[in-house]
Amino acid sequence: MEITTRPAITVSERDLERLETLLATLPESQPGVEALREELDRAQITPAEAMPPDVVTMNSRVRFVVEPAGREVEATLVYPRDFTGAPDQLSVAAPAGVAVLGLAVGQQIEWLAPNGQTVRARIVDLPYQPERAGDFMR
């Protein structure tokens, strides 16, 4: 996955720690691994307690619009181990999961799909964020 626009992103220290542990267990050849690592490398790292309330963190419930389809999606961003395949879940190892991690409401990001088409996701709402809710163990 090649990300073609790179807006500023913010990741909590706790999410970074857990995601780096996850990356250490995944084969380099797994799709999304390199893209996730690149996003983490460029992220601004913030203590979970200081996380802005409008930023997508792990286990956040996020609503975004996918272009060019114009389709609105609402899903919870989860770790691969928690992904059950439910339609309202989004694995952080999937291209859209990598894309929305760390974005704030109103931001958008573009990436190249395997078919060569440019896909864009724009964050429109964040109904739930663990840090905002005071749930620092999720």
General description of the model:
It is built from three helices and eight strands; from the N terminus they run E-E-H-H-E-E-E-E-H-E-E. The protein has 138 residues and is an alpha/beta fold. The protein is globular, with a radius of gyration of 14 Å.
Q: Give me the count of strands.
A: 8
Largest beta-sheet characterization: 6 strands, mixed
Q: Write down the overall geometry.
A: globular
Helix content percent band: 10-25%
Give the CA-CA distance, first to last residue.
27 Å
Supply the helix-strand structural class. Answer: alpha/beta
Give the structure's gist in a few sentences.
By secondary structure, the protein is α/β, with parallel strands linked by helices. It has 3 helices and 8 strands, in the order ββααββββαββ.
Write out key terms for the chains shown.
6-stranded mixed β-sheet, 138 residues, single chain, 21% helix, alpha/beta
